Amino acid sequence: MSLISPHPGVEITFRLKMVNVTPFQLAKDIDESPVLITRVLKRKTHLTAVLAIKIGKALSIKPETLMDMQGRHDISRVIERTKTDFITPYPRCS
Protein backbone atom coordinates (compact mmCIF):
# COMPACT_ATOMS: atom_id res chain seq x y z
CA MET A 1 0.00 0.00 0.00
CA SER A 2 1.41 3.37 -0.99
CA LEU A 3 0.87 6.69 0.70
CA ILE A 4 -1.42 9.20 -0.94
CA SER A 5 0.37 12.39 -1.93
CA PRO A 6 -1.12 15.49 -0.35
CA HIS A 7 -3.80 17.47 -2.15
CA PRO A 8 -2.80 21.09 -2.86
CA GLY A 9 -5.59 22.18 -0.50
CA VAL A 10 -3.36 21.11 2.39
CA GLU A 11 -0.58 23.50 1.34
CA ILE A 12 -3.01 26.30 0.56
CA THR A 13 -4.66 25.94 3.98
CA PHE A 14 -1.23 26.03 5.66
CA ARG A 15 -0.25 29.18 3.77
CA LEU A 16 -3.56 30.91 4.55
CA LYS A 17 -2.99 30.29 8.26
CA MET A 18 0.54 31.68 7.98
CA VAL A 19 -0.74 34.97 6.60
CA ASN A 20 -3.90 35.00 8.73
CA VAL A 21 -6.29 35.08 5.77
CA THR A 22 -9.63 33.28 5.75
CA PRO A 23 -10.82 31.17 2.82
CA PHE A 24 -13.66 33.68 2.36
CA GLN A 25 -11.17 36.56 2.11
CA LEU A 26 -9.04 34.61 -0.37
CA ALA A 27 -12.11 33.93 -2.51
CA LYS A 28 -13.04 37.61 -2.47
CA ASP A 29 -9.49 38.74 -3.24
CA ILE A 30 -9.10 36.42 -6.24
CA ASP A 31 -12.69 36.90 -7.49
CA GLU A 32 -13.77 33.29 -7.01
CA SER A 33 -16.65 31.60 -5.23
CA PRO A 34 -16.15 31.00 -1.50
CA VAL A 35 -17.86 27.63 -1.98
CA LEU A 36 -15.31 26.64 -4.62
CA ILE A 37 -12.37 27.71 -2.45
CA THR A 38 -13.78 25.82 0.54
CA ARG A 39 -14.23 22.68 -1.59
CA VAL A 40 -10.60 22.89 -2.75
CA LEU A 41 -9.34 23.38 0.80
CA LYS A 42 -11.41 20.42 2.02
CA ARG A 43 -9.99 18.32 -0.83
CA LYS A 44 -13.45 17.81 -2.37
CA THR A 45 -12.57 19.48 -5.70
CA HIS A 46 -9.58 19.31 -8.02
CA LEU A 47 -7.46 22.39 -8.36
CA THR A 48 -7.72 23.84 -11.87
CA ALA A 49 -4.98 25.70 -13.71
CA VAL A 50 -6.93 28.97 -13.38
CA LEU A 51 -7.26 28.54 -9.62
CA ALA A 52 -3.59 27.56 -9.34
CA ILE A 53 -2.61 30.79 -11.08
CA LYS A 54 -4.87 32.98 -8.94
CA ILE A 55 -4.12 31.28 -5.61
CA GLY A 56 -0.44 31.04 -6.48
CA LYS A 57 -0.28 34.78 -7.09
CA ALA A 58 -2.07 35.58 -3.82
CA LEU A 59 0.08 33.24 -1.74
CA SER A 60 3.39 33.54 -3.62
CA ILE A 61 3.37 29.90 -4.73
CA LYS A 62 4.29 28.90 -8.27
CA PRO A 63 1.15 27.63 -10.00
CA GLU A 64 3.24 24.79 -11.42
CA THR A 65 3.96 23.64 -7.87
CA LEU A 66 0.26 23.53 -7.03
CA MET A 67 -0.60 21.71 -10.26
CA ASP A 68 2.23 19.23 -9.66
CA MET A 69 0.78 18.52 -6.21
CA GLN A 70 -2.65 17.95 -7.79
CA GLY A 71 -1.22 15.56 -10.37
CA ARG A 72 0.76 13.58 -7.79
CA HIS A 73 -2.31 13.40 -5.57
CA ASP A 74 -4.49 12.14 -8.42
CA ILE A 75 -1.97 9.49 -9.49
CA SER A 76 -1.34 8.27 -5.96
CA ARG A 77 -5.08 7.77 -5.42
CA VAL A 78 -5.50 5.45 -8.40
CA ILE A 79 -2.13 3.78 -8.86
CA GLU A 80 -2.95 0.64 -6.87
CA ARG A 81 -6.36 0.22 -8.53
CA THR A 82 -5.00 0.44 -12.05
CA LYS A 83 -3.96 -2.88 -13.58
CA THR A 84 -0.73 -2.62 -15.51
CA ASP A 85 0.75 -6.10 -15.14
CA PHE A 86 -0.33 -7.01 -18.69
CA ILE A 87 1.61 -4.09 -20.22
CA THR A 88 5.05 -4.81 -21.63
CA PRO A 89 7.35 -1.79 -21.53
CA TYR A 90 8.81 -0.67 -24.87
CA PRO A 91 12.57 -1.06 -25.25
CA ARG A 92 14.52 2.01 -24.21
CA CYS A 93 15.88 4.28 -26.87
CA SER A 94 19.63 4.73 -26.59
Core attributes:
single chain; 94 residues; mainly alpha; 434 Repressor (Amino-terminal Domain); elongated
Could you explain how this protein is built, in words?
This protein is an all-alpha fold. The chain has a single domain (8-81), classed as lambda repressor-like DNA-binding domains (434 Repressor (Amino-terminal Domain), Orthogonal Bundle). It has helices spanning 8-18, 23-29, 34-41, 49-59, 63-78. The radius of gyration is 17 Å and the shape is elongated. The termini are far apart.
Q: Total number of helical segments? A: 5
Structural class comes to mainly alpha
**The named CATH superfamily:** lambda repressor-like DNA-binding domains
Order of helices and strands: HHHHH
Radius of gyration from the CA trace? Answer: 17 Å
- Count of DSSP E strands? 0
Distance from first to last alpha carbon: 33 Å
User: Judging from the principal axes of the Cα atoms, what is the shape?
Assistant: elongated
Determine the CATH topology. Answer: 434 Repressor (Amino-terminal Domain)
Describe the main β-sheet briefly: none
